[in-house]
What does this fold into?
Amino acid sequence: MNAPNSSVVSPIVLVTGGSRGIGAAVALLAASKGCAVAVNYHGNLAAAEAVVGQIRAQGGKAISVQADVAVEAQVLAMFARVDAELGRLTALVNNAGVVDMPARVDAMSVARLTRMFNTNVLGSFVCAREAVLRMSTKHGGQGGAIVNLSSAAARLGSPGQYVDYAASKGAIDSFTVGLAKEVAAEGIRVNAVRPGIIDTEIHASGGLPDRVAQTVGMVPMQRGGSAHEVAQAIVWLLSNEASYTTGAVLDVTGGR
Ligand code: NDP
It folds into this structure.
């Protein structure tokens, strides 16, 4: 739970997709503020271990935990490991997310849509469910904070590129508002961050490795953001400095 007189984030944090990009920046920043961090990854053990190693080298506490957030059994096993090795969770960052190759809706396969929605939406719901079961005062917990990763795409729609991704992030916005209200009286704050164009490997995974350079002209601040700049917003939302903020969706987009 957020200590009433503390500006530090909740002490036991799970970051899904914490091995790379924005998630790795969140894991490092949260650890620097004294949190024990569970660094979830999907396939890249080396990247997860590098984040954990950096945290431990600075005297912090961290573990790496493999799980595909789209698979319920793996999520359950991940939470069980966090329970056993770090203790009762007080913060969740639903960060794991995927894009896909640029395509129009009239060319999208069900396999593509299933992966997109199972990872970005279903994964966030199941992780939040498990977090609420541990944090809610209704379930014997001491409260906590959840931050979901949305995207500016939820507002922009991403036509001709990945409307499926944009729609999955639109679902995250609604999920954030609804869950925030549902658990507000149970000690849990739920917020979302909507990053704009951030310099991570996600663009290469969607077949657009130069996307940041190619799109900076569309950004009022005329540059892409860094993972650390997004992490600062997320870690603030986890902290007690955001103690009266819930159901908020915060744009971190350079004005886009
Ligand atoms: P990256 O592609 O750089 O990193 C993705 C992370 O998610 C990795 O740690 C990866 O693990 C993990 N991951 C992917 N799929 C799964 C899965 N099924 N189960 C568990 N973990 C998984 O992404 P970003 O840091 O750029 O993005 C993070 C979040 O921010 C996403 O939700 C994304 O949609 C959102 N976002 C990003 C923007 C950007 O411009 N970068 C803009 C707007 C929103 P592994 O290392 O094992 O592969």
In short: Residues 110-135 form the longest helix (26 residues). The longest strand covers residues 188-195. Residues 1-8 have pLDDT under 50 and may be disordered.
